[in-house]
Amino acid sequence: MTVALGELLRELAPQVLGALVRRYGHFDTAEDAVQEALLAAAEQWPVDGVPDSPRGWLITVASRRLTDLLRREQARQRREDRVAQWAPQGEPVGGADDTLVLLFLCCHPSLSPASQIALTLRAVGGLTTAEIARAFLVPEATMTRRITRAKASVKESGARFAMPVDREERLGAVLKVVYLIFNEGYASTTGSSLQRVELAAEGIRLARMLHRLLPDDTEVAGLLALMLLTDARRPARTGPLGELVPMAEQDRSLWIQESIREGVELITATLPRGPVGPYQLQAAIAAVHDESPSAEETDWPQIVALYEVLLQLTDNPMVALNHVVAVAMARGPGEGLALLSSIEDDDHLAKDHRLAAVRAHLLEMSGDVAGARTAYEEAAGRTTSLPQQRYLRARASRL
Question: pLDDT digits over 65-107, tens only?
């Protein structure tokens, strides 16, 4: 299967699944039918050519397969007769809108964040269960159970395949899930690799899809800009052996300039358009970093000011921790350490390796070598990422 055909099928998969679920229900069985239709397309289209209406072809084949599956599963003649009348009459309307509804369905509030992510990657991202399991370093059987339970929870909740009335509230959950997918790819929390490029790319793809569907939503645009500006640094984040390279030491000539230009243009056009949200502010901060010729020339006072606005909108402890770093860079490690002491009792931060890592960095900046070494060792003991462990232990050894 060619790359272009693979991309076409990935783009069409959530639309076809959305069309089937909207018309017939049966999320679980509809997904199986769509997967079989995609497999048939992958086998037939390279030989017979892509049909004039690829989406219509897939919906027709998937609908027929759904009919067969439901007939087999349902013993009662009434259900079988009803299903037999479900052959689609022309191509259903919906298309991209169905993809958006499907995203909201996968991020249903009855699901845990882990289940939302898994279901989104499966139904909207088109990843196989095996691929999702590999990405999150769990056995395929575990991921199969997680996805199955997620589908059952959505069904038990009585959710209809329609745009929820609380769309504005639910959009926040959708954006969070897409951002979590990107983050797990950009900075893996476990395992031997610092980055999982395929997950980060999937997060960006989903954000682009959302931006196409909701072009006037400033936070959707902000999220896409944030991802592009962050991912632009990816080639410089690891050394030859996969080791972590902190931003201050990165070769900025390796940064992806096309992504930086796109991200900067997007956030520059978005900020004046309406209320400023957390993703837009984080994108603005990322833009300041990416446009700085060197770490020394970074406009840290501007970054501090942006973080202070961001802190008024969110109580995210990681934002508070990043604000501490910015203050230390702008005003010195003493002010950074004083500010750090005011947030280190936060329950979410207390167990996170990044708290100890920031303390170590600020102690090192202030000249407290022994304290920095101890803090680096503490941070290394808290992280489950092997590259992070190696980096932090190397910092401790160097001291």
Answer: 888 777 765 544 443 344 334 334 333 444 456 777 888 888 8
Which stretches within 25-166 are classed as H helix? 27-48, 54-73, 77-84, 96-106, 113-123, 129-135, 140-156
Kindly report, residue by residue over 367-384, the tens digit of the pLDDT. Answer: 999 999 999 999 999 888
Task: Write b or e for each residue in 272-283: b if 16 or more Cβ atoms lie within 10 A of its Cβ, otherwise e.
Answer: eeeebbbbbbbb
C-alpha span between 366 and 363 (Å, rounded): 5
Burial of residue 166 (number of CB atoms within 10 Å: 0-12, 13-18, 19+): exposed
- Kindly report the pTM of this predicted structure: 0.76
For the chain, give every domain's residue range.
3-84, 95-214, 221-238+252-298, 313-399
User: Regarding beta strands 190-191 and 384-385, do their DSSP bridges make them parallel or antiparallel, or are they unpaired?
Assistant: parallel
Domain covering 313-399 in this structure, CATH number:
1.25.40
